[in-house]
């Protein structure tokens, strides 16, 4: 199992139904993983993100207290599986034991402990996707453009990289297309005179 660290980018709503999700970002691949959660869990996470501290112990505090008394703490919080839109999280205790958890509970615990969240690579490959910087900024108020290659043939560096990877997997290289300047190859095809 290969676990990859992801960035937490808060609670967001999407679509006309205003479904709630946590946006996680696989920075290395500039891909987004939405983890859909209930409105109640979203409200609790959002309140915590905005500095709310309950007067009495909430679910996260109670869970942390029990874990600390029984095992000495939490060593990792991971999202380890995904099936038909349902994610499965794992809370790894200091003694190595793993506890099965809902992603919303695991994320709340991670935020309370200020711990990194890791996601199984297969889950990221299956459930994450590339979203252009413009869409991320328009719909979610997020911008990551500085980290993505600025110049590209189509203006979309990720799409160009995906296309290049696909062409290489088919056994083609840049030399097959005439390199940087392929005007000699295409001039005759477009009815233009060759020089």
Layout of SSEs?
Blueprint: E1 3-14, E2 19-26, E3 31-36, H1 39-49, H2 59-71, E4 74-83, E5 86-93, E6 98-101, H3 103-113, E7 117-120, H4 121-127, H5 133-140, H6 157-169, H7 183-187
Parallel strand pairs: 4-7
Antiparallel strand pairs: 1-2, 1-7, 2-3, 4-5, 5-6
Helix pairs in contact: 1-3, 2-3
Stretches where pLDDT falls below 50 for ≥5 residues? Answer: 147-152, 178-188
Give the SSE string.
EEEHHEEEHEHHHH
Oligomer: single chain
Query: Would you count the extended β strands for me?
Result: 7
Count of discrete domains: 2
Rg from alpha-carbon coordinates:
23 Å
- Tell me, briefly, the overall form: globular
Quick check: average pLDDT?
81
For the sheet with most strands, the description reads: 7 strands, mixed
* Major β-sheet strand ordering: 3-2-1-7-4-5-6
Structural class, from secondary structure content?
Answer: alpha+beta
Q: For this structure, what is the CATH homologous superfamily of the largest domain?
A: Bifunctional nuclease domain
The residue fraction in helices comes out at 25-40%
Per CATH, the architecture of the largest domain is: Roll
Counted by DSSP, the helix tally is: 7
């Amino acid at each position: 199992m290969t676990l990859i660290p992801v960035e937490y980018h808060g609670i967001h709503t999407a679509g006309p139904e205003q479904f709630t999700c946590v946006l996680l970002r696989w920075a290395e691949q500039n891909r987004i993983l939405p983890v859909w959660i209930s409105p109640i869990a979203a409200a609790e996470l959002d309140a915590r993100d905005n500095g709310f501290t309950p007067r009495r112990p909430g679910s996260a505090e109670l869970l942390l207290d029990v874990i600390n008394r029984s095992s000495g703490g939490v060593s990792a919080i991971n999202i380890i599986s995904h099936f038909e839109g349902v994610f499965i999280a794992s809370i790894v205790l200091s003694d190595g034991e793993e506890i099965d958890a809902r992603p919303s509970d695991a994320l709340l615990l991670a935020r309370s402990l200020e711990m990194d969240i890791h996601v199984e690579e297969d889950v990221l490959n299956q459930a994450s996707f590339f979203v252009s910087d413009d869409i991320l900024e328009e719909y979610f108020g997020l911008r990551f453009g500085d980290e993505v290659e600025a110049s590209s043939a189509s203006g979309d560096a990720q799409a160009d990289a995906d296309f290049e990877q696909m062409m290489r997997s088919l056994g083609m290289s840049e030399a097959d297309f005439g390199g940087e300047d392929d005007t000699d190859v295409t001039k005759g095809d477009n009815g233009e005179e060759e020089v």
